[in-house]
Amino acid sequence: MITLSSDFGSPYPAAMKGVIADRTEARLVDVAHDLPRQNVQAGAFWLREVLPYFPPAVHLAVVDPGVGTDRGAVVVRAGEHAVVAPDNGLALPAARRLADDLDIFGLDYRGGAGDWLPDPASSTFHGRDVFAPAAARVHETGVDAVASVPGIEPTGEYVDLRLPEPEVGEDGAVGEALAVDGFGNVITNIPGEALEGHFEEHVKANGVWASTRRTYAAVDEGHRVITVGSHGNVELAVNQGRGDETFGVYAGGRVSLQWS
After folding, report:
1. Which domain holds residue 25?
2. Whole-model pTM?
3. Residue 97 phi/psi, 5° resolution?
4. What digits encode the pLDDT tens for the residues 34-87?
5. Which residues contact 19 (CB under 8 A, 6 or more apart)?
6. Beta-strand relationship, 81-86 and 73-78
7. Count of structural domains, the chain
8. Which pick of 45, 82, 88, 168 has the fewest CB atoms within 10 Å?
């Protein structure tokens, strides 16, 4: 199996699939192609939350605002999985969720890979010209043997990305909005445990009062609610409405909760 994730929308993912299908008979599974555009941190968060539910696979992930620059490319081996991605930190949070110990390889796509990966035909579409062929080659070679592929070598130099940590105290918590989902729910980096002891109360989120409940429907339609999402983090939401618009918080924004 090869999974595909990107911020490309349509029709660009079809070109990546065509390249892969020309090189391997692997089953292709789309994760998402509407990841927040050019937002590496938000993309890394979603990959971390989704990829661990897959059986062993090669995961192709592209959110690449640095395409065409001198940014590198990596293949990260995480147990029986491999993540092929730009070297901008996108792969690391998911890989760490997939396995405790990682092997990180640099991918030389500027002529060092030999005939299987010629110089990119485009400086703006490495998803098609670099990462799709690399994902197919890793799949065909096998995750365990990835180091045998020409142009893929172990590296200690790579861009790391760790999602920001919140500050949680007795009177409240300060964190960041990691992402906003399609329903408008603002997903923060504040752990859900921070709300224990404060459910069925009113809490301020960036100065706006809201009820703390365990489900969206526990408040009336159109009312604000602070809850814990399936990912285990605090969410700012509106029952059948958009939390991002109502709370005025978007991905990357500061979130301050006060329950004192």
Report:
1. 2-154
2. 0.94
3. -75, -30
4. 999 999 999 999 999 999 999 999 999 999 999 999 999 999 999 999 999 999
5. 128, 129, 132, 133, 136
6. antiparallel
7. 2
8. 168
Do residues 104 and 226 both lie within one domain? Answer: no
- On whether both 143 and 228 belong to a single domain, the answer is no
The answer on 208 and 182 residing in a single domain is: yes
Per-residue pLDDT of the chain (260 residues; tens, 9 = 90+): 999 999 999 999 999 999 999 999 999 999 999 999 999 999 999 999 999 999 999 999 999 999 999 999 999 999 999 999 999 999 999 999 999 999 999 999 988 888 899 888 899 999 999 999 999 999 999 999 999 999 999 999 999 999 999 999 999 999 999 999 999 999 999 999 999 999 999 999 999 999 999 999 999 999 999 999 999 999 999 999 999 999 999 999 999 999 97
Query: Which residue type is seen at 109?
Result: Y
User: How many residues appear in the chain?
Assistant: 260
CATH number at 95 reads 3.40.50.10790
Cβ–Cβ under 8 Å, residues 187 and 235: yes
Dihedral of the CA atoms 30, 234, 40, 250 (nearest 10)? 110
